[in-house]
Amino acid sequence: MTTTDLTPERLSAYLEHINDDHAEELLATIKALGGPEWAEGAEMTALGPEGFTALVWDGEQSARFEHRFAEPARDALHLREMLVALMSRPQPAHRPYPSFDADALEAIIRGRRSYGVQALKPDPVPRALIERCLDAARYAPNNGRTHPFRFVVITGPEAKQRLWAKVQEVFPKALPGYEPRWLESYRKLIFGAPVWIAIGMQPRRERPMPEWEELAAVSMAVQNLHLMAAAQGLGGLWASGPVATHPDLAAYFGWAEPPDRLLGLFYMGFAKRALAPRKYPSLESLVRWEED
């Protein structure tokens, strides 16, 4: 092969593969090559026989990074070998955050509980606390950098009434033969929570990932949200079921077209009291070690 096989299509395919499947390695490589230490994300924007260009960023700033290879790539295979070698080089040891406390994190994970709405106070929750939970959610792992998780936050009384009107339409469709008292019980339960968060999944249309991976990404995002809520003294519950995931309700939130989905509602508020610890399966019952 020669440089003639380094077509724009092939270079574009290499670039997309790196951005979709090796974004973390790209970021680490850029830092090892002298890129900014503050960068939290990276995306290769151009790739050619002589080098590559990337965009790096954090929550407040971004910068352009360029790297030239020691020698131009002779052909597609040579370019691939250079990229693999470059991104496989030993990286600097990870530096833990100075204030990081693994024991505190473990306590939050162990203490996280699902609070029924009746266990929540009706007191309003400051928006800053809610936003911190949602900000934690957006850092969830997701294959291919699809970021499929979406959220709609409902806190105002009029917004809740509009949603409740839609729930009443959906109820007989989701639960044929339901009894009226079920609807009243449902109303009392959900209006007991000051914060409602609709959980949506909105996969990428172009070059989609398997649906189970997108579902896993949303689940991890909700776990991040729930852990941050627990760390701030908030209780929460991820409710699913035929009503909270009904397609008509999904359409209400703007997720009407498959593969978009509504995956439930997260009810959140200050807990009335700490719940008693739960008993979980032993580690030994869940893990098998193969060391020989």
Number of domains: 2
Order of strands, main sheet, comes to: 4-5-7-6
What structural category do the secondary elements indicate? alpha+beta
Shape: elongated
CATH fold annotation of the largest domain: NADH Oxidase
Q: What is the CATH architecture annotation of the largest domain? A: 3-Layer(aba) Sandwich
Strand content: 15-25%
Calculate the mean pLDDT score and round it: 90
What ranges have pLDDT less than 50 throughout 5 or more consecutive residues?
none
The radius of gyration is 24 Å
CATH superfamily of the largest domain: NADH Oxidase
Gap between N and C termini, in Å? 44 Å
* Helical percentage: 40-55%
For the largest beta-sheet, the strand count, sense and barrel status come to: 4 strands, antiparallel
Q: Provide a count of the helices.
A: 10
Number of DSSP-assigned strands: 7
CATH uppermost class of the largest domain: Alpha Beta
InterPro entries: DUF2470, Haem_oxidase_HugZ-like_sf, NAD(P)H_nitroreductase, Nitroreductase, Nitroreductase-like, YdjA-like
Pfam families: DUF2470 (PF10615), Nitroreductase (PF00881)
Enzyme class: oxidoreductase
Cofactor: FMN
